[in-house]
Amino acid sequence: MRTTPPPHLGPRLPSPFQELRDDRFTRHGATLTLKRDDLIHPDLPGNKYRKLALNLDAAVAAGHETLLTFGGAYSNHLRATAAAGRILGMATIGIVRGDELAGRPLNPSLTQCTTDGMRLHFVDRSTYRQKTDPAVLSAILSATGVDNPYVIPEGGSNSLAVRGCTALGEELRGHTHIAAVACGTGGTLAGMAAGLAADQSAIGIPVLKGGFLGPEIQALQQRAFGAPTPNWRLDDRFHFGGYARTPPELTAFANDFEDRHGLPVERVYVAKLLYALTALSEEGAFPPGTKVTAVITAAEPPPPTAQSSTSR
Length: 312
Prior knowledge:
The chain is an alpha/beta fold.
């Protein structure tokens, strides 16, 4: 299987670095740099391109005409998959967590999915939690009425996605001591850590509460590389109550970071990552001389389009 980008995607690789001067790091002798993966592609930013590229290659090579995947109401992965389908001329179906959302006005993320041609199929949360069970998955596929779709897991995290993210770690070699990334399903961290040099380490900041990601990341690395790597850790303290939760403290931090550095801060993933690294720096977690790099994996969702917000 080729490792060059699928036709027509046109990514900007390697993604650029952006050094920041932030006194919350410099006064402790550390530095903060951003790895701007959000600039890789306007429709498939950051880890979404890296995780989808080899999956899209496999889907096209196998002759699939439809991509089917899973996500929550604010899923960047759903948006990216919908955009990839539009670019490649493939149909897309998004299985969305929460049947209570059906019939409600769509948020900007889901609106963009439908604008890019994705058909949304809402399932109740209990069914969604069991989506990897073969019988449950079969029932979901049957309900969509589509034969033989190429199924991409939630967040895009499978072995192909993990292997696609090793390039991120390789791009970080020689640039940093610690690379940090916000984690949803853990695929980006699993691949990035495997691509780092021996003298580098990785930190993952889960954006969901529950403390379940560690074994899942180990399993992803086991399937992709034959064994987990020992060079990463998770800090579970910064989920702020769960996925897409943005309490006032986090909003205030993100607003202040934007004012300090003139950069937009995506709230679901990036704000929690930057908050965590700032807190760790203030705690003295980074010895003097440490170069810390935050991988910016997500961009702000698009504003609502002129298309009806109730469209499906």
